[in-house]
Design a protein that fits this description.
The strands form 3 sheets. A 6-stranded parallel β-sheet has the order 1-11-8-7-5-6. It has a 3-stranded parallel β-sheet with strand order 3-2-4, with helices on both faces. It is built from 10 helices and 11 strands. Helix 7 links the parallel strand 5 and strand 6. With 288 residues, the protein is α/β, with parallel strands linked by helices. It binds NADP nicotinamide-adenine-dinucleotide phosphate. NADP nicotinamide-adenine-dinucleotide phosphate (NAP) binds next to helix 10.
Length: 288
Amino acid sequence: MTAQLIDGNALSQTLRADVAKRAAALKAQGITPGLAVVLVGDNQASQVYVRNKVKSCQDNGLHSVLEKYDATMTEAELLARVEALNNDPSIHGILVQLPLPAHIDAQKVIEAISPAKDVDGFHIASAGALMTGLPGYWPCTPYGCMKMLESIGYKLRGKHAVVIGRSNIVGKPMAMMLLQESATVTICHSATADLKAMTLQADVIVAAVGKRNVLTADMVKPGAVVIDVGMNRDEQGKLCGDVDFEGVKAVASHITPVPGGVGPMTITMLLVNTLQAAELAAAQAPAH
Ligand code: NAP
């Protein structure tokens, strides 16, 4: 068997075209969806991420402002900026790029973002909404994974999904989303005694660890769907995922590549969340 690729670039193009169309419709009503991206310090990877996020907004008809601050910015100053953005009607989504410098309490900053503008879905209110099945913003990476499963018409009901990784931004919300679709979900992590015994039972595997070759062909049931969230570098410095792609693609029915898989979907879902925030704000705005 050779697995079918789930192409994150192609799916992103389709979803972004829809975002651009809906953004144009809002603009016709006098509202331009706006995302504020806040970067503190000079982390190289963060600089690339925020540039990509801002450019993707601009390419799809969203307004985006990038606020860059020195690593010496104090927590109080950052909280004041977040508060100003909460009150800025031209901004519908606020994203504070992580990691923040060590002297700033990242959770405190995330909690300062208005849940109505929490397009990253990291606020505790967003996490609680996902947990309880209420409306709220879903974290972009696992949301993108769900869209990838949806794109192949995969029905999760009654299937066994194994998530490897339990971070607050990927693993845990991923598990909640799969559960919401009535999959039976197992969450694995660094203390899982026998990872292979778990993954071999899975119809769907989501690897979100950050280590190469965490998932190899002998750990995958024939016909399983494999989603690779990991972003690592191989010996040649080339981007690769957590999954031994060449080996696993001979066993799985569907697989996401790295690059060109979950990565572009993460930014796409940020655009989707921002657009949705703008649409909700527009619906609540007084008619004029
Ligand atoms: P993280 O916070 O470091 O979490 C990694 C998780 O993997 C932890 O829960 C850890 O378990 C678990 N783990 C570590 N070693 C393991 C092992 N040998 N077997 C099973 N589980 C193990 O990372 P993250 O933020 O969730 O990100 C995970 C990966 O996804 C990274 O490569 C990151 O770069 C990538 N990522 C990609 C995107 C994208 O857009 N493509 C977005 C976000 C993240 P413990 O909890 O027990 O330590």
